[in-house]
Amino acid sequence: MLTIKGLHKIPQISAPCDLPKTLAEIIKKESFKIVNGDIICVASKICSLAEDNIIDLKTIRPSSLAEKIHKQIPRKDARLIQVIINQTGDPTGKHLEVSGSHIGAWLPNGLFLTSAGVDKGKDNFAITLPKDCDKTAKTISDTFFAILGVRTSVIITDSDGRVDKKGANQVAVGLYGLNGLRLNKENGTAETLCDMLASAAGLVMGQRGMNIPLACIHGLEYEKSDSCKTKDIVN
User: Fold this and answer.
1) Which residues share a beta bridge with 171?
2) Which string of DSSP letters, residue by residue, matches 107-125?
3) How far is the CA of 162 from the CAs of 59, 105, 115, 169, 192, in angstroms?
4) ∠ CA(153), CA(116), CA(21), 5° rounding?
5) What's the mean per-residue pLDDT of the chain?
6) Which residues of the chain have pLDDT under 50?
């Protein structure tokens, strides 16, 4: 039987910390059962806060491109738009896709995300994705093994919207311990398994404010891999 359960009582992260160790200690304290082969989904934003991926917007000077997009989408702070541009690694804006009030962006690793995965935080701060989500996922897996004695696969998830739909879904932005693709060798098709799992975990984790940034998926048979990375699931 496939089950998905969320870890409650995770404190608000307001300063850089050793998140993997913190999560492992809460799992122990709450007797939250995880076993070898389980898939742990962790929200990217709690990882970002723990890794201090926070930018003070007062330090950002918008470019003419950011100002131009701001005029098209006034609800988006021009400084935040500049952070989005910076995350693509291309100041020309060629890795942006602006449609209506939606800003999509291609990251250097090939992922396409709403606002390049950038969120507006409190007090004029922007929260960006962890610098290496695959490394973050591996660190969580390794720490759980060291402290809890179980080897889990880990997916870092992020909330993502689509220009054609209302609301948001959860997608994988980092992974470790599993093949992110599920291949059908008979007909040559592939499913983005890591995104399917991230979306399923979203049923329990919800959006920011739910305070359930970790979910455990148990009972799924899947191909394990220590070498598969996010770049292997993108075109």
Assistant:
1) 158
2) -TTS-EEEGGG-EE-SSSE
3) 30, 12, 11, 9, 17
4) 35
5) 95
6) none
